[in-house]
Amino acid sequence: MSEFFKSNPMALRHCLLYKFLQKNAIEQVYSVFCMVIGYDVIKKEDFYSYSNQFDRGVFDINDDRGSITDMRDVLRSDKYALRACILYESLKYELTERVYKTLWPKSNSLAHKSNPIFSIYNYFCKVIGDDVMDYREFEFWFYRFLNGDFDLNYVRDKDKKTYELMDMPVVVMKNIVEYLDIFDRMKLAKTSQSLQTFVEDTKLLHHTLKLNISPYMATISFSSSVCIKYIREGKDCVKNYKKRETLIQNVSYWKQAFLDFKHFLKNPKLHLNTFFIESDVDNENVFDDLEDTLKFTHFLSVKNVFLVGHSWELLAKILPVLKPGYLKTINIDSHNPNVDSMEKVFETKQWKQAKYFKMDGACFIWPLRNLYHFKEVTIRLEKLSLEDVREMKEVLFNSSDFEKCSMAFSREIDMSVCEQEFGNLYHSPAPNSTDYFKIKVEDHHFEVTRRKR
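Structure tokens predicted for F-box domain-containing protein (453 residues):
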């Protein structure tokens, strides 16, 4: 590559000006510049000389027009200068790729890890000006240089059809996009407005999204391998993602986590199999912020919700934002039941239309009739009364949907209560069906299961 710049001194000078405009430390700039274009292209003293020249507002010492107020105008007004700058960026990208693959040979390329071309374009515009070139033009030249075509004078045929991803049949595009995870979709959406619209209109299926909040840290997990950490650092937050740490000043760790969490959930096409939230804090401000985070104009399409925490307020704040009917399973693990919160929950459509409920930690202290619409229930109770058994027998045993009820008790069960209703057989026929209910009673456990004959 060094031979190209040796034979194109004007392109070299444009690249030098481009680096000068980035306002980085001169020693570092020279070292990186030589790594990109070649160590034998420009001497260090000449590099410093050009830097001083540009600093005085002079691009060409033979030009009689005097100093230039804004040195960016030199590049803005010359399409060949802009192409030279893009060439430099493509060479730097290629170098970065080589270094990355050398250090991490078993990893995927840098290009797969992020959306570098669009980021490079944004930086290019930041240095020279937002209106110097549109993204498609930049992308054309970037990939041309990346493929080894360095002719800055190439005349592009604007009338020639350039096929793009969006030219694919809609069915093919949908098949491609549906297999992309949440991160790859976000990258794809950044490449163009049309792709952003297409991505937003395509259903996104994701298996598990987990939010964990502790007194000193919050985490967002998308799978076993993808996790973002938000660490409390006084009044600031340290965000850790893919081994990169970012300090976010004057923002609490949970607020930053909620901000990112909202960004992931705002897509109305997102469908989650499992939505897991765990909180080890008992702070009303945290729960209020979480409630605000989950406020959308659409319901969240979640099949299974798992909530673990000190406070039952979590369920009361989260359940109303989930899509009624789509939600199938409610699983809660908490040791501090809140009577008022659960009374509100019992009235929601989400609760009434869910099919499975499991509760760990605390005992269920509310009337059992709030559970009789579920297909399957697993709970803890203090004790089993004769009234409870009679009500279950009357309601559940006449339900065509009921499948299983499992109850663990703090106190030992009075066997006479069950024998009084079921006798010694512990079987009961299901009305209008060949099925039957099998009743299993132990010292601290009571279970009813629908069975086929």
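Residues 110-114 have pLDDT under 50 and may be disordered.
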